[in-house]
Design brief:
The structure is a homodimer. With about 325 residues, chain A is an alpha/beta fold. The first copy, chain A, has helices spanning about 1-25, 30-35, 60-70, 85-95, 115-120, 145-160, 175-195, 210-220, 235-245, 260-270, 280-295, 300-305, 330-335, and strands at about 45-50, 75-80, 100-105, 125-130, 140-145, 165-170, 195-205, 225-230, 255-260, 275-280, 315-320, 320-325. Chains A and B meet through α1, α3, α11, β11 and β12 of A and α1, α3, α11, β11 and β12 of B.
């Protein structure tokens, strides 16, 4: 009888532990149902670009993926392979057809994608724009570089390199809005804050390194006193670097360039380009996904969502600029 | 013996369930350890303002609290009770002394808080600025209204109200930067996009409703053709509203005002103010907390953090503007 009693006691004890456990689990619901920002692995967020094989997108996509991992959701990457508006429209249409949890688009053109973007928003799909916007579209937010401010940063950096005096030039794409803004920020800042510095020329480099190299040769001939050149895009910077190396004026003329492709980084590493401006591409991707997640889960100010002319998310995010020199260039090869 | 056997079988069965459960729990780690964005309830994030009793802060604090709830962390609200720089410095010093997980500051002055903000950052405390910035400080980000763009929005809204023609005036605070920017955005947009609209006067309303009322009376006398007034701050808008009611020109002169205090909302509700611009205050608070959380948990692009001139977060977030009219005014009384 004693043994049987012991068994009963043990049995009841274990049963009580079991019940206690069960009860405990019942009163404490799964924390991720009520706390923490977490989605479902079946939620698919799509990033859509153009020239989709370009290195430039890698860091944005990494940010997009990192945010997806943080939030336990899934991502897909799609893009027009060429620099082709019609192709990007088709890719975006295909993304919409999958009815994803959200789409982050970098628009090849500020106008021609608007209708397709609006179609996605009208279908109830959250859409944000990153890097290249489409201001007239219904997309909920834009995340990218404030190009005017990037030009301001370039001007301050140039003034530091030249001890606030000397003649400088700009090699740019004069017909593209983002490059006009970079040039204007550069020029305004030098005019307003550095009276001993002059912008003596603003030239078209056609986004081509060979063409830009010839423009740089010409500049050095026309303005032998020139001591700094700001290239508003990477190919121009590489061309200017080549010209300065060929004319043996390295160190004598300071170059500030844009972006962090391998060609540019190599010239920074060699000391031919003094500094290049890295865009906040990881942040563009990361916060695009976080914004889409918030739209998808209605984690926005509730009253605003019920009204017209809504602004559920911040409208515009300036992802900023980091200055890359030979001191920190190594970190950028990793991208 | 049969009974005893039954008891043994039951006992072993329950034990196996217990072991299975235990095992199951072991191989599935707590999801919030590895997935989802979630902090600890003992992490304290502090919001610091000035004139801390003002209704204006309620919505930002609500956003800050909503984000804390999403992320399972805690918040505290502190502020100088008066419009007093020294008092806000003291309050910020006290916040730093608590070594919190992060501090969101709305700076009473763009310069005088810089030293204290930098002290917090140097002590390793994440700091972001919201609503009113301190551009020279080491704070990691600024989240607020782009005032120039708010002026642009006001101009488009005014043109809609007036069918793109007529004389308009601005009542503003001509010595404060944010109000200069609102005025400039308004003026530039009308000049560039609406050739049949003219800004005939820009007057100082001194941020006072009685003074602004008298300015509005004067304006109506000097410019009897005037058909619209943009007040860049709330007291001015209330004063203009009073003047127009007194002179029985309601409907004849359109008023666009700023912010959503009760006095302004009442005049929108009565149809005396046609529209007022609501700032994205909830978003300022919400995203301030999310940014601080990301800094606290090192959820930023890793390589950038190791370099100098770092930009771990987007530098500037324009939280946007929502137009409030009699159609959606009810949603704003809730704040």
């Amino acid at each position: 009888m004693r043994k049987l009693l012991f068994v009963y006691v043990a049995l009841i004890g274990i049963f009580m532990i079991y019940v206690y456990q069960f009860h405990f689990k019942e009163v404490t619901p799964n924390p991720w149902d009520t706390q923490g920002l977490q989605g479902d692995i079946n939620e698919i967020y799509i990033m859509v670009t153009f020239q989709s094989g370009m290195d430039y997108w890698k860091s944005s996509l990494k940010g997009f993926e990192d945010a997806a991992q943080s939030l336990n959701v899934s991502v897909e990457y799609r893009g027009a392979t060429q620099y082709d508006i019609q192709e990007q429209i088709t890719v975006l249409e295909q993304a919409i057809a999958k009815n994803p949890a959200g789409i982050a688009v970098s628009a090849i053109d500020p106008f021609d994608l608007t209708e397709t973007i609006d179609k996605a928003v009208d279908a109830g799909i959250p859409v944000v724009l990153f890097d290249s916007g489409a201001a007239e579209s219904k997309a909920h937010s834009f995340l990218g570089t404030n190009n005017y401010n990037a030009g301001v940063t370039a001007a301050h950096e140039m003034s530091k390199l030249l001890n606030e005096e000397g003649e400088v030039a700009v090699i740019t794409l004069p017909n593209q809005l983002n490059h006009q803004e970079r040039t204007k920020g550069f020029q305004d800042t030098l005019e307003e804050e550095y009276p001993n510095m002059q912008v003596v020329a603003i030239e078209d480099g056609q986004g081509d390194s060979l063409f830009s190299r010839n423009v740089a040769h010409q500049l050095m001939k026309e303005y032998p006193q020139i001591s700094g050149i700001f290239a508003t895009e990477a190919n121009g910077g590489v061309g200017v670097g080549d010209a300065i190396r060929l004319e043996k004026r390295v160190g004598d003329i300071q170059i500030i360039s844009f972006d962090t492709d391998k060609g540019t980084l190599d010239l920074v590493d060699e000391g031919i380009i003094s500094a290049t401006l890295a865009q906040g591409t990881w942040n563009m991707g990361y916060w695009s996904l976080v914004y889409l997640f918030h739209l998808q889960h209605d984690l926005t100010e509730p009253q605003i969502l019920q009204t017209r002319d809504t602004a559920p998310l911040p409208l515009y995010v300036d992802t900023g600029i980091t200055i890359v020199t030979d001191e920190n260039v190594d970190y950028y090869y990793a991208d």
